[in-house]
Amino acid sequence: MRSASFLAASLALLIAGGAAAQEDPTQLPAPSNDFRPSLTSWGEPDLRGGWPIDHLNGRTPFQRPAEYGNRQLLTEEEYNERAQAVAQLEQRYENEESEGTMGMGHWAEVAAANRRTSWITAPADGQLPAYTPEGQRLSDAMRSTWAAGQHFDWVDDFDSWDRCITRGLPASMFPFMYNNGIRIFQAPGLVALQLEMVHEVRMIPTDGSAHLPRQIGQWMGDSRGTWEDHNTLRVDTVNFRPGPSATNIGTTGSPRENDTPVSEEAHLVERFHMVGEDEIIYEFTWTDPVVFEQPWSARLEWQRDDDYGMYEYACHEGNVQIRNYITASRAERAAEDASE
């Protein structure tokens, strides 16, 4: 929250400047190639630093509400309405402090409003594509604490995020209500992305090495990076481990239940465009023909914040919550049976 105003203003200037130069002010401008970032001592574009996406957390939905149609940017009137809604959310903390209570105002971080109508940019309507029949079957079979009315009897009744294993991809690249820190580290032939949520680190070789054998699946996939133009890192990720791994759960406007499966055919292509000393436009396309009828894409505007501090991600202290869910669920069902 300490830098939300600065970051929001920078984002507004970025979008406004691009919109002024294009014919359609309702659409996002393409990332510019004008900026030439400084180079590392070994000659690669230098993306190192803190790039938290907490400034994107708030009212921007993952999927676009139907009333916006194919528009990627809000009108001035719509933006003002969102800004007012954000201001009301920000007031929750002060209200709780004055009342001596602790609720969502203390728990959920809210950033300043921006003009995006959704994070999804393709398909044009900003909605996730339809599931294939197999995708729907896999989705229906998924289990999660995010789903209402579910019973828990064993560890496979929980998704990978419930179990503090991973938030998965591309979900980990979207804002949540907290723990939105991202740091980029570089070494010769390697880029590393440190994620605050679950404290995962994505290791991305840029040395031209081939992907691991297909049968070696990983929760975050196997990534390989190449440099495009003079300001862009392209990352190609395959070899995803199938299973209960979320792709979008938690972000405002995403499906309410953790019901988006990942198959072995999933393929993620990301581009990190450094368009200013303190600005990266992050874009990706997710293709999973087993699950979705067509690929889908998203875009987020990152802002540098090297002062952002990452603290311990204590997912569930003592590693007892899975057991607690199971014992509570069994006790609840036993009580229901006894009352019949």
Q: Could you characterize the architecture of this molecule?
A:
This protein is α+β, with helices and mostly antiparallel strands and 340 residues long. The protein has 5 helices and 10 strands, in the order αβααβαββββββββα. The chain is 21% helix and 19% strand. The protein has a 6-stranded antiparallel β-sheet with strand order 2-10-9-8-7-6. Residues 240-260 are annotated as: Disordered. Residues 1-21 form the signal peptide.
In short, what is this structure?
The protein has helices spanning 4-20, 76-99, 104-107, 133-141, 321-339; strands at residues 49-50, 120-122, 182-187, 190-195, 201-205, 222-228, 232-238, 267-276, 279-287, 296-303.
- Supply the number of structural domains: 1
**So what's the overall shape?**
globular
> What pattern of helices and strands is seen along the backbone?
HEHHEHEEEEEEEEH
Structural class: alpha+beta
The number of helical runs is 5
> How would you sum up the major sheet?
6 strands, antiparallel
Strand segment count: 10
The oligomerization state is single chain
The proportion of strand residues reads: 15-25%
Contiguous uncertain segments of 5+ residues? 1-11, 16-22
Strand order of the largest sheet: 2-10-9-8-7-6
What is the share of helical residues?
10-25%
| Spatial extent as radius of gyration | 21 Å
What is the CA-CA span between the terminal residues?
51 Å
Give the overall pLDDT as a whole number: 88
Keywords: Signal
Region (Disordered): 240-260
Signal peptide: 1-21
Biased composition (Polar residues): 245-255
